[in-house]
Design brief:
Elements (H helix, E strand, L loop, with lengths): L1 H14 L16 E5 L5 E6 L12 H14 L7 H5 L2 H14 L7 E5 L2 H12 L5 E5 L4 H9 L3 E5 L4 H10 L5 E6 L11 H10 L3 E5 L14 H5 L6 E6 L9 E5 L1 H10 L1 H4 L6 H15 L1 H27 L14 E7 L1 H13 L2 E2 L2 E2 L9 E6 L6 H30 L1
Parallel strand pairs: 2-11, 4-5, 4-6, 6-7, 7-8
Antiparallel strand pairs: 1-2, 3-9, 8-9, 10-13, 12-13
Length: 417
């Protein structure tokens, strides 16, 4: 019965063009990567699908630091943090991360997690007590949503970037504990949350602001210190979640907040307490990653990234003006996440397949990750991309637009004949 039930669900997903397939990478994360193709063949593809925004994942200094960490601490931690798995490397990383965010969160302490997903589950399930209310941004990441499901608190959702609605919800609430929860950079749209306005509302209504800066940490703000630094915010009411497997190029995540909040998470956050600590070698490597992000090299990579974003957006804008009949749209994004909204699931997957035939990997994103009717190419850029890579992508998209336009015209002529 179970297999029949699951088989029917898979058939329904296939009929809606929502089947997902694993791709196997045979080389390190880089602008050009070798993926396994049909029958085990090797495909060399120009990648626009990675969250390695600064191009640090394969940086020689990080590889060397990871190897050094393995020599010092071995391959694994051997236990959970609270038993015996909390190494000197973990402690040093947490202290470095706390210093990193202290201009934004006075007296901040940091807590290291295996993944950003676990960090979000931990924060919301631990802090969202019964009687509390969580005010959730409409476009929050799945990990935030799942953390709210684990919490005992009531959840009220406000529309994307709608401060008027949020203020009304806060004003009407008599909850003793109020948590405003938002992504800093929205992972499918690339736009920023108005964190300055959100913090002002938190302060006015005795609330706390939980910010998931997965896609801003390392990329945005002075020295890549994140979206809080970009807005110049400073408050003990801020609870920051940062991911270390994207721009930082390694793995893991952290929560930074007032010491009382961090101490409570150590006592009550089940995703922290009941899991083996991440390998100390990764924490050791992340110390080098923080140095790289804050260095002149990190600034050069961020500057390069901004240049590539401008080049891509200019080219895509010209393309959309040339082929308005396709109905493709380019939302406003000043981040490495550049979504090209196509519309239907079938159309975006056909376009992604055309690009792959041209040697480019650009993933099609479909519901339930995004709203129905807004399936898109999620183009992501890296500081390791070259200007020629952007031109190659634009040329392939232009050819695909030309072919799609002529196919539509041909079909229309045949149907009217």
């Amino acid at each position: 019965m179970l297999l029949e039930h699951l088989g029917n669900k898979l058939q329904a997903l296939a009929a809606a063009d929502q089947i997902r397939k694993l791709r196997v990478a045979a080389t390190a994360a880089a602008p050009t990567q070798i993926l396994r193709g049909p029958g085990g063949s090797a495909l060399e593809l120009l990648m626009f699908s990675s969250n390695d925004y600064l191009g640090l994942a394969a940086h020689p200094a990080l590889a060397q630091a990871l190897a050094e960490g393995a020599r010092l601490y071995g391959a694994g931690s051997g236990s959970s943090h609270l038993i015996s798995g909390h190494s000197l490397a973990h402690e040093q990383l947490e202290q470095a991360l706390a210093c990193w965010v202290q201009p934004n969160i006075p007296d901040a302490q940091a807590l290291f997690f295996c993944t950003g997903y676990m960090a979000n589950l931990a924060v919301l399930s631990a802090l969202g007590d019964a009687g509390a209310v969580i005010f959730s941004e409409e476009l929050n990441h799945a990990s935030l949503i799942d953390g709210m499901k684990l919490a005992k608190a009531a959840v009220q959702r406000f529309a994307h970037r709608d401060m008027v609605q949020l203020e009304a919800l806060l004003a009407a609430s008599d909850a003793a504990i109020k948590l405003i929860v938002t992504d800093a950079v929205f992972s499918m749209d690339g736009d920023l949350a108005p964190l300055d306005q959100l913090l002002a509302l938190a302060e006015a209504h005795d609330a706390w602001l939980v910010v998931d800066d997965a896609h801003g940490f390392g990329v945005i703000g002075p020295q890549g210190r994140g979206t809080l630094a970009h807005f110049g915010l400073c408050s003990q009411r801020l609870i920051l979640v940062g991911t270390l497997g994207k721009a930082a190029g390694v793995a893991g995540a952290f929560v930074a907040a007032h010491p009382t909040i961090i101490n409570y998470l150590i006592q009550a956050a089940r995703p922290y307490i009941f899991t083996t600590a991440a390998p100390p070698a990764s924490a050791h490597a992340l110390l080098t990653s923080l140095e790289l992000m804050a260095s002149s090299e990190g600034e050069q990579r961020r500057a390069r990234l901004r240049e590539l974003q401008q080049q891509l957006r200019a080219g895509l804008t010209d393309l959309l003006n040339e082929y308005p009949q396709l109905g493709w749209t380019l939302p406003d994004s000043q981040t490495p996440i550049q979504p090209l909204i196509i519309g239907s699931n079938a159309a975006v997957m056909q376009l992604a397949a055309r690009l792959e035939q041209a040697g480019l990997r650009v993933p099609g994103i479909r519901p339930p990750t995004v709203a129905p009717g807004t399936a898109r190419l999620r183009i992501t850029l890296s500081g390791s991309h070259e200007s020629a890579d952007i031109e190659r992508l634009l040329a392939a998209l232009r050819q695909a637009a030309y072919e799609a336009t002529h196919e539509a015209a041909r079909e229309a002529a045949e149907s009217s004949a």
